[in-house]
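Reviewers asked in the last cycle whether our approach scales beyond single polypeptides. To address this, we selected a multi-component target totalling 244 residues and predicted its structure end to end. The input consisted of the following lines:
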Amino acid sequence: MDPDSVAKAFVEHYYSTFDANRAGLANLYQEGSMLTFEGQKIQGSQNIVAKLTSLPFQQCKHNITTVDCQPSGSGGMLVFVSGNLQLAGEQHALKFSQMFHLKPTPQGSFYVLNDIFRLNYA
Amino acid sequence: MDPDAVAKAFVDHYYSTFDANRAGLGNLYQEGSMLTFEGQKIQGSQSIVAKLTSLPFQQCKHNITTVDCQPSGAGGMLVFVSGTLQLAGEQHALKFSQMFHLMPTPQGSFYVLNDIFRLNYT
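The resulting structure, written as structure tokens, was:
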């Protein structure tokens, strides 16, 4: 599978899981995974999922505008996403950018080693 | 030097070089470096500098809003930047996000292995 398709498949899986059931993101992170969410640094799958499931909204929908990817060396892949985030009940969608550093698992899949999320304020 | 300080120093150096003399960015990239600029993929220091020096403006000024960084494993560092780009003569600044994957050089410095740039349209 070519890298762009892998990146696109990951992005679709990540955001559809996020939007349907944030707790389900746990198996995409491992103990050494790092998330920086609007400047707050969090490490490890458990803490990351705790942060994401505690975000102050019930329902949301990510709409992805751009996906760029590059190999990061030693089998890893960098994925750079921009899009908007619609929260239920809010009139205006929030714009965001996010980058993922994916590393291969022995089973032939990927997990997220690095994750950085930022809202893009107008 | 702590990672956040290293990331900030790199960002200051990168954008001040970009704004003063884009050709001077050549020694921050190597042959295997990759740039994706608004979706266009470019590889190698020479091609990357050719792209950046051919961008259709003479003068510009980057103003950085946020800098996030995380270690990428194997001594590398991921740096995620957001800010605005003011082009000379334009009334409104452009918003952008950019990610760098820095790898250490034998001399104790860093070079850019991966670089992805996207404008954030309102």
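Residues 3-119 of chain B form a domain with the Nuclear Transport Factor 2; Chain: A, fold (CATH 3.10.450.50). We regard this as preliminary and will revisit it once experimental data from Aim 1 are available.
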